[in-house]
Write a structure and sequence with these properties.
The complex is a heterodimer of chains A (about 220) and B (about 425).
Chain A lengths: L2 E12 L5 E12 L3 E6 L5 H8 L7 E6 L2 E2 L5 H11 E4 L11 H12 L4 H14 L15 H13 L5 E5 L7 H18 L2 E5 L3 H5 L3 E6 L2 E2 L2
Helix pairs in contact in A: 3-4, 3-5
Chain B lengths: L3 H14 L1 H37 L5 E4 L38 H10 L3 E16 L2 E10 L1 H7 L6 E3 L2 H6 L3 E5 H6 L7 E6 L4 E10 L4 H4 L2 E5 H8 L8 E6 L5 H12 L2 E4 H4 L1 H39 L1 H9 L4 H35 L20 H28 L2 H7 L1
Parallel strand pairs in B: 3-8, 5-7
Antiparallel strand pairs in B: 1-9, 1-10, 2-3, 2-6, 2-9, 4-7, 5-8, 6-7
Helix pairs in contact in B: 1-2, 1-13, 2-11, 2-13, 2-14, 11-14, 12-15, 13-14
Classes of the chains: A alpha/beta (about 220), B alpha+beta (about 425).
């Protein structure tokens, strides 16, 4: 199977006067249709790695490939386009734009991409909400729904542009056990049914064990 | 691949959910622009009124025969004293007639000159107003009243009667208001005048003239050219002064010199007649613009603050937008389009409010002896001011929003997302 995401010798330092070596020679890859999780203690650099992989953090040395295409060194404008088109995000805290309705939140990335008519986008967004069992919330303000619901809306938004990779920064970290199990099942189904590649940082060992592969980080190095 | 629709949609949602900040920012612009429009309209209105007070009574170029010594004294013609330095005591002015030589051909020539808006002939005569055994010294100016009323707004200064009354009355006189008061005369009565030579004439008062300057109103009266020529016992070509209005007042000094040579008369231009006039106008305009620009800058700072606050509040949104594929310049455009909306809506409201306020001022009674025809405060509704106003509204909102929006553009989403 081909690699969706690949890194070669990624190094990152924090601070300028007294540089702190956060990531040391990270070389890894995520295969097509693979559900990988990154685990490690606080400060091991797992979130830092995730944001480099997400193309949002560009301050590193080494090389990052997305579908065998070198991403490192591209302009911000192009990176935005890549994020928009190929990568879906689910965060721990930052879910949605509070002033917009649920459906508008889901539609935003597709409108930005601008490949489909607003009507098509709306239908697809409704489809996604239906699949996630939250279609009844479509016209609600995003700030008015519960945490578990918000995270499901975030998943819908991450999927609207049919990305090749879904990245989660502790997506279940702020949810109760019922809701986190629910979200995990959704992600698992996506992988099984659509062959989506997933990469998530988590603290939850039980959840991580149920993924295809666990990448352990310790002091900026991959140990397993 | 700019997606304007989404950008504007996000900008609109931000504006309408934060309606309070939007309204506050717009009101800042509205008041700034309204104050600018009101102030400029009022100040320029006052300025042009004051300018007109002087300009309408002073010709751009004044031609006359000056009483002065000959520039070349007879001794200079003597070849014998060519190398000597002549010292002459008690030089007398040259014997000269007061009338302008060839006045009628000069007038014809002036009418053909395309730089000249019009030229009016005048006769200045020293007279006495008689009442019983009281003699009041004064000036009687013979004018072609119809031409005069076209080139200056003399009719604005006629408080009783009209210019037509003067034209239609053979021996009519427009009496200065000061004299009329002293002699207790009103339109329809007769006044006895005497020339310097002692000839006496009865003239019919057809109207009262009030310039607003007491020293003029106390001596100055107007009559038809023919009437004055008859009083003085002079022929029809007797004209002592020619007043010229130009199409462009800035040409006055140069043209005055040309005419002086061409017609062999003395010519003074408006700058010589009233040197401080221009300085006063300039200083007043300067003050107007200084105050207006200050107001706009204050409004600009208001917008700057509100935009800054808005961006601070929207840090999370900016990070999310960037994470889901909006570029830095997309985010910047969101905030700039918000500022444009605030600028346009606040600016247009400001223009309307400014128009209303200047209209209010326009209706406030303002009565002064100096300006008999003006009853309310003068306001200048120059459309150019409104164009400048809306332009400044947009410019100041753009500048005020540019720096905060640039900050939004450069916000690192990772820092925001990880910071929480």
């Amino acid at each position: 199977m081909s690699l969706i995401l690949e890194t070669k010798n990624i190094n990152k330092y924090f601070g300028k006067l007294k540089p702190f070596h956060v990531l040391k020679d990270i070389s890894m890859g995520v295969k097509e249709g693979e559900f990988a999780s990154i685990m490690g203690k606080s400060g091991s650099g797992k979130s830092t790695l995730l944001y480099i992989l997400s193309t949002m953090d560009t301050d590193y040395s080494g090389e990052l490939y997305l579908q065998d295409e070198l991403v490192t060194g591209k302009s911000q404008q192009k990176l935005s386009h890549i994020r928009n088109k190929k990568i879906g995000f689910i965060f721990q805290f930052h879910y949605l734009l509070p002033e917009f309705s649920v459906i508008e939140n889901v539609m935003l990335p597709a409108k930005k991409l601008g490949l489909k008519t607003p009507q098509e986008i709306r239908e697809e967004a409704m489809d996604l909400l239906q699949k996630l069992n939250i279609d009844h919330l479509a016209s609600q303000r995003a700030s008015k729904i519960s945490g578990g619901e918000k995270q499901r809306v975030a998943v819908a938004r991450a999927l609207i542009n049919e990305p090749i990779l879904l990245i989660g920064d502790e997506p279940t970290g702020n949810l109760d056990s019922y809701n986190s199990e629910n979200l995990f099942q959704i992600l698992k189904t996506l992988k099984d049914e659509k062959g989506l590649s997933l990469l998530m940082v988590t603290h939850d060992e039980d959840l991580a064990k149920r993924t295809d592969r666990i990448i352990y980080l310790e002091d900026g190095r991959i140990t397993k | 691949m700019r997606s304007w629709k989404v950008i504007l949609e996000i900008a609109r949602t931000h504006l309408f959910t934060k309606l309070k900040s939007t309204v506050t920012a717009s009101i800042g612009v509205t008041f700034g622009i309204a104050a600018y429009i009101t102030l400029v309209s009022f100040m320029t209105g006052l300025n042009s009124m004051l300018d007109n007070l002087i300009l309408n009574q002073v010709p751009h170029i004044h031609l006359f025969n000056e009483i002065k010594p000959s520039e070349k004294q007879p001794i200079a013609l003597y070849n014998d004293y060519e190398d000597a330095l002549p010292i002459i005591h008690s030089i007398k002015p040259k014997q000269n007639q007061r009338k302008i030589h060839n006045a009628l051909p000069i007038l014809n020539d002036l009418e053909k000159n395309e730089k000249v808006l019009g030229a009016t002939p005048q006769i200045q005569a020293q007279i006495f107003y008689l009442s019983g055994n009281i003699e009041l010294g004064g000036n009687l100016t013979g004018v072609d009243i119809m031409k005069e009323s076209k080139l200056s707004n003399i009719q604005d200064y006629i408080t009783q009667g009209t210019v037509l009354d003067l034209r239609n009355t053979e021996n009519g006189i427009l009496l200065g208001s000061g004299i009329a008061e002293k002699l207790s005369l009103t339109a329809g009565r007769k006044v006895l005048v005497s020339t310097a030579r002692g000839d006496r004439f009865h003239l019919k008062v057809v109207g009262i003239y009030q310039s607003g300057l007491a020293e003029i109103d106390d001596i100055q009266s107007f009559a038809n050219l023919k009437t004055v020529q008859r009083i003085l016992g002079e022929a029809e070509n007797y004209i002592t002064d020619i007043n010229i209005k130009l199409n462009d007042i800035t040409h006055a000094p140069a043209l005055a010199k040309v005419m002086e040579k061409k017609y062999n008369v003395s010519a003074v231009d408006i700058n010589e007649i009233n040197a401080q006039f221009e300085t006063g106008t300039n200083v007043r305009n300067l003050i107007t613009y200084a105050v207006s620009i200050t107001l706009l800058i204050v409004a600009g700072f208001g917008i700057y603050n509100i935009q800054n606050m808005l961006i601070y509040e929207k840090m999370n949104d900016i990070a999310i937008l960037k994470a889901i594929g909006f570029s830095g310049s997309d985010v910047q455009l969101i905030f700039l389009s918000q500022a444009a909306f605030i600028g346009i809506s606040g600016g247009i409201l400001g223009l309307i409010l400014g128009l209303g306020l200047s209209n209010l001022i326009d209706n406030v009674p303002f009565e002064t002896d100096a300006l008999p025809t003006i009853t309310t405060y003068p306001v200048n509704y120059n459309p150019a001011n409104y164009v400048i106003g809306i332009f400044f509204a947009l410019l100041s909102t753009f500048i005020a929003a540019y720096f905060p929006s640039k900050r939004a553009k450069n916000i690192d989403p990772v820092q925001i997302i990880r910071g929480n």
